């Protein structure tokens, strides 16, 4: 609660800043956003005009800043997203400050978690819970240590460390050697969230789809594209995050899709079988309530 109050106070303070004050504050805290080149502004002129929110026409001489997409909390109608950057008018730049503050607080909290991991001996049950809680943290930070990077080559032996939803999708993949589009995106997002290597994920999916004869080689190119796209390597180069599991549960609509959630009405597991399944996976009784939030 105190952190929420501090953030609200910070937002109230910085929104009173003038543009020079906001830019000075950003630079003092180790950030320096590039200005868009005249050619970029010209190429995006139409989009910038559409996204201009104001009664008067957009000032063509106003400086446009390129802010990495993950540092811009501004709603879609106020920005232009292009090649991984948000093109933000100088008059709106101070609205980036609350996001930088939140990122700083989040990284400080995650660093505390990593320090606990490095200095605490965990049993397998504790590791299951910890791995699940780190999915959201790992998506926001490229770790310098290999200790918390998931090795795709060991997925068969380390699948026990993943949350139930991922394990059920993985079981389905191994059973039929194919996943429908939405299920694949969820599978890639979770692997990206635990810092798996994109190239190794692609090789693994090739072995499942093509080598098992479920996807013709000539069609595999589109499958490979979406793997690289979810990892921020292709297209708009956005690194997709691992959303709250409720996002997956609420958006599964197509027949044959599998969101893996054992608590969802879309799950293939009957509720009577759920306890036995979690016991088979060695999920501790006192930790099973975490599964609702993984």
UniProtKB/TrEMBL annotation:
Q: Which GO terms describe its cellular component?
A: alpha DNA polymerase:primase complex
Domain named DNA primase large subunit C-terminal is located at: 161-278
Under Pfam families, the record lists:
DNA_primase_lrg
InterPro entries, alphabetized: DNA_primase_C, DNA_primase_lsu_euk/arc
**Entry keyword set:** 4Fe-4S, DNA replication, Iron, Iron-sulfur, Metal-binding, Primosome
Q: One GO biological process from the UniProt record?
A: DNA replication, synthesis of primer
Against PANTHER family, the record matches this protein to: DNA PRIMASE LARGE SUBUNIT
- Identify this protein by name: Prim2_1 protein
Q: Which gene encodes it?
A: Prim2_1
């Amino acid at each position: 609660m105190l952190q929420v109050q501090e953030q609200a106070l910070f937002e109230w303070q910085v929104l009173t800043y003038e543009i020079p004050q906001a830019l000075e504050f950003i630079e003092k805290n180790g950030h320096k956003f590039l200005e868009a080149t005249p050619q970029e502004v010209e190429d995006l002129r139409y989009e910038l005009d559409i996204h201009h929110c104001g009664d008067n026409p957009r000032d063509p001489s106003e400086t446009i800043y390129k802010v990495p997409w993950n540092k811009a909390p501004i709603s879609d109608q106020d920005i232009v997203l292009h090649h991984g950057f948000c093109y933000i008018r100088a008059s709106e730049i101070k609205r980036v400050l609350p996001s930088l503050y939140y990122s700083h607080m989040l990284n400080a909290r995650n660093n505390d978690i990593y320090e606990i991991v490095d200095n605490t001996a965990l049993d397998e049950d504790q590791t299951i819970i910890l791995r699940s809680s780190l999915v959201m943290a790992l998506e926001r930070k490229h770790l310098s240590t290999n200790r918390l990077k998931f090795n795709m080559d060991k997925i068969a032996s380390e699948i026990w460390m993943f949350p139930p939803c991922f394990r059920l999708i993985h079981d389905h993949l191994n059973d039929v050697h194919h996943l429908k589009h939405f299920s694949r995106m969820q599978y890639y997002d979770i692997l990206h969230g635990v810092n798996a290597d994109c190239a190794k994920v692609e090789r693994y999916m090739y072995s499942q789809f093509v080598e098992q004869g479920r996807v013709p080689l000539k069609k595999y190119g589109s499958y490979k594209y979406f793997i690289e796209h979810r990892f921020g390597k292709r297209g708009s180069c956005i690194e997709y995050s691992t959303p709250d599991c409720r996002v997956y549960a609420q958006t599964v609509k197509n027949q044959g899709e599998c969101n893996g959630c054992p608590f969802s009405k879309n799950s293939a597991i009957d509720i009577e079988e759920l306890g036995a399944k979690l016991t088979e996976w060695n999920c501790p009784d006192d930790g099973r309530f975490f599964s609702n939030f993984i």
